[in-house]
């Protein structure tokens, strides 16, 4: 195309001035032709000719292991590789981040075609677009047969647990450093402290990452947790011992982590309303490995399976394991369908969520005296006061063009405020309760056709009933002239069927490597009380009860740290082997997918300290 354009330009003077065909007459055209060629060459060199800058996206190029410990030389290498695709003049501007401490990779702004060209280079292992991941949202340790009186190793205070999550709320009592000495000498990390955040001898390190774009409103540029998830997982893994703790009387007992004397290193990679980006995850792994953590706990994962060379958690954890660090990860919350498991790389410890012998229920009492027990976490109830009961399909927000076929689901904005105010609303689906709450309702009764084996927290008195019970409540509402109902405050009741894998916990088999069993084991992940960020928009308080494989993962992380404290020379493979081979066998009759639901069984930290035999892993050199 370049030569064709020059030919057209060169013949223009000949066509216009046939009598004056002289070399001098062609000089302007030749000069103009050279100018075009030069400008196009410059566009290639600077990467400006192929696509508008707004169309470029962040891609990550993974190059394998480090060949140099000099960060500057590694970054120079990244620029040289990048310049092969976009030109030497644009490499510095397009390079967003170089991973130089624990593995060899970089993130850069590229077009799709440039990313394809980069992936074709011999020195590049893989290239993948920076995608968004999500985190997998007291009594539990005792239920595992791991009481507060369990033997403790003197080296527990030398174990460092690295938490990749939403940050931490350092003022929580769970992270008090009373009685702690200085950090272990092996610690090489740092605390990105400012007026908003400080570390102590419990939280010995804290960093935050946001490589692409600006931090959104409501978030804080510090390791401080504004969402709550990271504070919850950190206190579950290694929180301080807090006796006589409860959430408004629920889950009363001693709150503690698995290794209360261990240290915490916090890596904030997830942001409220933003999720957790690949580039940030890799940066945290890069730092955590170099900082000297012993265990990495990551309750994060993608909703879609990726091959190992395009998965930042698989890549980061691979290099962590190579450096002697066990990585504990959540299995995901996409169950109970088959092959939904996340974080399935063979070197990861992948953790499913199981129940404990306590569940939270809320009673629905009708005006005719009939009562129904549903699942919910209500901190308040209707105090046995009967309120008018209405069906969501009969209180439609008609001014907004909503009819009963939509309002029956009680979605926010679909209910008429005048017709809903001061009433208990019966809904045909499960929601967060914001629809009835914003419409002025005093309570909600929701229906679910799912297993209903864990409780949601609500901001108004609510209860979740199964299909049959909900149908009976609706029949009462339709056949009674003035139906009424009352929803109670939640209470904890015994669940004698526990432990079993909860319905939301993702199942195997492994979608990429089917002959590698995933998940590896199960741990408590249902209705777990732990510390919380008091400025969270989800729930305002210093404690919260939530469920997810995110909650199961730190139970396994704390168990791994406990084993490490007694066996400090064990490799990640040895610790993983000990946890798997000593897990308590779970019932296949309660879990129809059996090993694809719970792996080897329920984690047993005390048994894993002395398993009798461990299976280590070596390196295959090819």
From TrEMBL:
The keyword Protease applies. The active site is at residues 165, 229, 550. Keywords: Hydrolase, Protease, Serine protease, Signal. Gene3D superfamilies: 3.50.30.30, Peptidase S8 propeptide/proteinase inhibitor I9, Peptidase S8/S53 domain. Residues 58-132 form the Inhibitor I9 domain. GO terms for biological process: proteolysis. Belongs to the peptidase S8 family. PANTHER family: PROPROTEIN CONVERTASE SUBTILISIN/KEXIN. Residues 157-601 form the Peptidase S8/S53 domain. This is Cucumisin. GO terms for molecular function: serine-type endopeptidase activity. PROSITE patterns: SUBTILASE, SUBTILASE_SER.
């Amino acid at each position: 195309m370049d030569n064709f354009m020059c030919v057209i330009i060169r013949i223009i003077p000949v066509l216009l001035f046939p009598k004056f065909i002289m070399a001098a007459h062609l000089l302007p055209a030749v000069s103009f032709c050279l100018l075009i060629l030069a400008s196009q060459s410059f566009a290639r060199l600077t990467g400006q000719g192929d696509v508008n800058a707004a169309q470029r996206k962040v891609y990550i190029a993974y190059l394998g292991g480090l060949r140099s410990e000099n960060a500057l030389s590694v970054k120079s290498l990244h620029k040289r590789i990048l310049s092969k695709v976009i030109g030497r003049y644009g490499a510095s501007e397009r390079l967003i981040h170089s991973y130089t401490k624990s593995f060899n990779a970089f993130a850069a702004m590229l077009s799709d075609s440039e990313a394809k060209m980069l992936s074709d280079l011999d020195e590049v292992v893989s290239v993948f677009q920076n995608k968004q991941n999500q985190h997998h949202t007291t009594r539990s340790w005792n239920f595992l047969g791991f009481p507060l009186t369990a033997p403790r190793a003197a080296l527990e205070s030398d174990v460092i647990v690295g938490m990749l999550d939403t940050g931490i709320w350092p003022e929580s009592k769970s992270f008090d450093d009373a009685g702690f000495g200085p950090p272990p000498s092996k610690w090489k990390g740092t605390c990105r402290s400012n007026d908003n955040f400080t570390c102590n001898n419990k939280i010995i390190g804290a960093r935050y990452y946001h490589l692409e774009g600006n931090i959104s409103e409501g978030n804080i540029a510090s390791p401080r947790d504004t969402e709550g998830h990271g504070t919850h997982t950190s206190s579950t893994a290694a929180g301080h011992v807090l006796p006589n703790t409860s959430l408004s009387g629920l889950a009363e007992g001693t709150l503690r982590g698995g290794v209360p004397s261990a240290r915490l290193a916090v890596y904030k990679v997830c942001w409220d309303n933003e999720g957790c980006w690949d580039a940030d995850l890799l940066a945290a792994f890069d730092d955590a490995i170099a900082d000297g953590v012993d265990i990495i706990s990551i309750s994060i994962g993608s909703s879609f399976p990726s091959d190992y060379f395009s998965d930042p958690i698989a890549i980061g954890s691979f290099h962590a394991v190579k450096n002697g660090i066990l990585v504990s990860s959540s299995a995901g919350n996409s169950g109970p369908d088959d092959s939904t498991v996340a974080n399935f790389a063979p070197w990861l410890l992948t953790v499913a969520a199981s129940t404990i012998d306590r569940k939270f229920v809320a009673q629905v009492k009708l005006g005719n005296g009939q009562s129904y027990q549903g699942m919910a976490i209500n901190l308040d109830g209707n105090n046995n006061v009967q309120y008018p009961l209405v069906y969501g399909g009969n209180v439609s927000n008609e001014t907004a063009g909503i009819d009963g076929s939509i309002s029956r689901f009680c979605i926010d904005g679909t209910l008429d405020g005048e017709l809903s105010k001061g009433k208990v609303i019966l809904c045909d689906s499960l929601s967060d309760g914001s629809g009835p709450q914003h419409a002025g309702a005093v309570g909600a009764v929701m229906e679910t056709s799912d297993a209903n084996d864990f409780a949601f927290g609500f901001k108004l008195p609510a209860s979740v009933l199964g299909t049959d019970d909900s149908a009976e409540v609706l029949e009462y509402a339709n056949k009674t002239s003035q139906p009424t109902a009352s929803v109670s405050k939640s209470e904890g009741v015994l669940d004698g069927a526990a432990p079993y894998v909860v319905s939301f916990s993702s199942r195997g088999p492994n979608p990429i490597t089917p002959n590698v069993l995933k998940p590896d084991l199960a741990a408590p992940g249902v209705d777990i009380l732990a510390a919380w960020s008091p400025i969270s928009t989800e729930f305002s308080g210093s404690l919260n009860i939530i469920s997810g494989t995110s909650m199961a993962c730190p139970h396994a992380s704390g168990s791994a740290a406990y084993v490490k404290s007694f066996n400090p020379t064990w490799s990640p493979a040895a610790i993983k082997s000990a946890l798997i081979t000593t897990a308590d066998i779970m019932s296949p009759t309660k879990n129809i997918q059996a090993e694809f639901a719970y792996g080897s069984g329920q984690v047993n930290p005390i048994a894993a300290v002395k398993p009798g035999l461990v299976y280590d892993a070596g390196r295959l050199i090819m």
